[in-house]
């Protein structure tokens, strides 16, 4: 592109600075998500949907700001941001807002948000910086090399898990593991980490998991046996998906959605609503768009100028990937029911803000790639 | 190391990025494959399940067919009523264990406390009633499949109960509701009790048999026409379907595809209306005639057709009583009453026919070629046979067949039995030929067969003695017949020797008056006609019973109608005396004989045959004959031309067609094997 010469106007320079692939994909997904969210919450363009649109506006502004920054600023901000995020998380048990027996929110007046959501991105920043600084270091003390990133991950996870919020904790660990997998760990180390993870999981299963979390596995394996109680949502989600057929029922024409047979339509199961109303055609299309976004960020990683940028891209890709896999897997009954959201589709301001900031990071990195190309 | 380097060489991580891209793509392909499986391959299945979610099918009750008497009077009809419905496993909203989730709706069976709360709203007649009510809800609660639907638990709520439930409903919840239903009503009460029968809740066995697709709580015919013609009366349920949301509430503007997927509505088809042959006026007269009789029965039918005009059994329980719960104490009182109010005495129980059976004996004797009906046998008031003394009512002196019937002389028939003219075999042939010993085919109230002794039967029972033959000849011993059978027998004599199948259903119509079924007279073509001359001889004797001054029913004759008839006074068997103790307390003398009177009139052209039976009523002529006479008189005087019945001075025997009123004019001589056309 450089052979075209530098753009002459400000607008032209701006147009070149923006990664239109990411912007187009994000806008398309956002548009479908908002239409779907509106359908899932009564097709009235009111209340929750309006709030969500405001959050997305805020998120877009934040993304623009982040995109405008040189990612090297992010590099410098990584550790302070980590400290700030951890501080917020530490505040939650003290002054957090209680909702449905869980203390996850920090509130200032009517404005409430979840620090744990923001922490996912901050953790990516901090890990990326650490792995950038130490990743290429040769040396035999591998174990010690792993101790610090492990501590970086487990400190916020410890705060999150006591909120309690198991799904966000697992998500943080998955994103961190993905980043470590990129950081030139040997196969042996990865197996070691996997084993450690499994042991932790088993311990957690035995000692820390609550009954409702444990029974979810039983329900997942045999939902029909719990059709009237715990398995109800799983089955209704499957029915909604299957009812969509190839072309779908049309927006707000899905009976599972419009007649409220499907529970948690706007938080946990918006994808089931989408699959019912847009059919295989729409659902596969949205999945493909998400996949393009992920592949594009991996592509950006491969073209990154340095490890920090590459790790940022992979971290954002992992964030999207694991969110989508866990949520859609749950809807399609490939995974047990958890509270993991589907980016942009699920109702939730903090989540929308976080994911948009992540997109902003991608844009920033992409700009740097171009600048250096 | 804390500064970003320019253009780091990242080629080392490229393979890992490629593997990651590949894995990511594979994961997405897996998700899309699963989507394809659910939406395209199994989509139909889930579409059906989604339809099951939002389709709410409600059943629309079909009104039960009504029952009418021959004049169009309603004897069974429907009235609006309120029924209490309970959903034993309602969907309720509970807080979920998971703090992150909002409350969810789950199916939860009713608690014992909730059931007690409903029970408190109902006026139970006794503890057993309450027990049954609670047991039914418990059973519904235990049934996971059908427990989620409302079930009727209490039909025909009283106004007090209705008001109580309505005021508590909001507090108790959606699982309690009142629906408008119909209740069965019998406007004539106990007058038609055994004819209409009654409806009641279907039994567990009836449900379990699976016949007719009944639902728990359905009301079905239990006795009488209600039971026998249940399939016609019942009608077919209709169906209504609508789109509901997850809470089961109707949706004002459902998605168009959901509306299109609903199964089509079906209108209920009302049950068919049944018109009985019963003459309600005559029925009432007959019932009134039994006013001072504690127990008895009457059957009146049209001899030429077998159409039943009146059918009364006393005592009877008002069928409307069964539409409400009955206190256990009262039920027991009925069940243990010596009057047996549950028994339809016209068909359900058989009795010794007594002297009314002498008609059969006479026909059997006339079949014997060696028998001379004019031969006189001297009655000394008793006859000794086999060391036993067989008694007559009194000393009749010399009697021939005619006088033996007119005066009801037992010794005459004993003698024929001793001489083997009246063998058990011959008696049996003629008993069967006149419809005794088998069900008449009316079909209601589990008709008894009656009993005709045969030599084989007696030998098997080890009771065969010549004495049996003697007792049989006068309708005692082991001869048993129902009131209806005796009526059919006399109707056959009246109509000229042809036994007809009695029938109670005149026609059946749909609710919009299309004819479904119409009865036609059905002669029993499987039974040989009685030889006309024999019939005429018996007929003449039966006229004599009422019209000859020596006749047993002479005192009961009607002034302007020639009635032919036969009295009967059946001695009560030994086992009946066991009821003595139970009956003594209520002033019912069960040592008294059963009184019978079987008759038809007018003798010249019989229009009605009536059999009146008074249980432990005493002498037939005194107890039963007045009842039958009242029915006959009422029926004939009400006919189109009451003057058509010839007036004649009492005591003068009327002339038979083609005869001069003199017994001696009857043809004599051999008649065995004669067919009707071969009469000389």
Structure description:
The complex is a heterodimer of chains A (about 375) and B (about 675). Chain A has about 375 residues and is mainly alpha-helical. Chain A has one domain. In chain A, about 70% of the residues lie in helices and about 5% in strands. A three-stranded antiparallel beta sheet of chain A has the order 1-2-3. In chain A, helix 5 packs parallel to helix 14 and helix 10 crosses helix 12. The longest helix of chain A is centred in the C-terminal third of the chain and has 33 residues. The radius of gyration of chain A is 21 Å and the shape is globular. Chain B is α+β, with helices and mostly antiparallel strands and about 675 residues long. Chain B has three domains: about 110 residues, Penicillin-binding protein 2a (Domain 2) (Alpha-Beta Complex); about 100 residues, Alpha-Beta Plaits (2-Layer Sandwich); about 375 residues, 3-Layer(aba) Sandwich (Beta-lactamase), CATH 3.40.710.10. In chain B, a hairpin with a 6-residue loop joins strand 23 and strand 24. Chains A and B meet through helix 5, helix 7, helix 10, helix 11 and helix 12 of A and helix 1, helix 2, strand 5 and helix 10 of B.
Helix-strand layout with pairing:
The complex is a heterodimer of chains A (373) and B (680).
Chain A: H1 10-17, H2 20-40, H3 48-68, H4 71-95, E1 97-99, E2 102-108, E3 111-113, H5 115-134, H6 142-161, H7 166-182, H8 187-208, H9 211-221, H10 232-244, H11 255-258, H12 270-302, H13 307-331, H14 349-372
Antiparallel strand pairs in A: 1-2, 2-3
Helix pairs in contact in A: 2-12, 3-14, 4-5, 4-6, 5-6, 5-7, 5-13, 5-14, 6-7, 7-13, 10-12, 12-13, 13-14
Chain B: H1 14-41, H2 43-54, E1 55-60, E2 67-68, E3 74-86, E4 91-94, E5 104-107, H3 112-119, H4 127-142, E6 151-154, H5 159-172, E7 176-185, H6 193-196, E8 199-201, H7 204-209, E9 219-221, H8 224-228, H9 230-234, E10 238-243, H10 256-261, E11 273-276, H11 280-289, E12 296-302, E13 307-314, H12 328-336, H13 358-367, E14 377-379, E15 382-385, E16 388-391, E17 397-399, H14 401-406, H15 410-418, H16 424-433, H17 455-461, H18 466-473, H19 483-494, E18 500-501, E19 505-509, E20 515-518, E21 522-523, H20 532-547, E22 564-570, H21 574-577, H22 580-584, E23 594-601, E24 608-614, H23 620-623, H24 625-637
Parallel strand pairs in B: 2-11
Antiparallel strand pairs in B: 1-10, 2-3, 3-6, 3-7, 4-5, 8-9, 11-19, 12-13, 12-24, 14-17, 15-16, 18-21, 19-20, 22-23, 23-24
Helix pairs in contact in B: 11-24, 13-16, 15-18
